[in-house]
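INFO batch 0412 | record 1 of 1 | parsing
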Amino acid sequence: MSTITSVSTPNAPSAIGPYSQAIKAGEFVFVSGCIPLVPSTMQIVEGGIEEQTKQALTNLKAVLEASSSSVGKVVKTTVFLKNMGDFATVNTIYEEFFSGSEHKPARSAVEVARLPKDVLFEIECIAG
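INFO prediction complete | emitting tokens
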């Protein structure tokens, strides 16, 4: 039976509900949805979709690193957008974020009615 452990890092926003930043289960890491909060203030980063996407991805990277994983080990992401009209902008930033990886993770992207704290972007992932 594989070990299941909770992951927590001060380099990413603390959970705003009854969940973990990530869970390690055996060889896999399941990262909870990352939104564009600045870890030191727990406030939404100033700016629009570009700034919010970059901050959420920075938070994702911090949680992955705290899990002894990395961006290059991400196998699947789910992207949540407030407005699918932002997809092209998000896609450009996303592509740059994963540009150092040997592979492109599998991905789903969906538009949602509302996200926590009314942010514009959220991302979760599964990594090795």
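INFO post-check: Residues 21 and 112 are 21 Å apart (CA to CA).
INFO record closed
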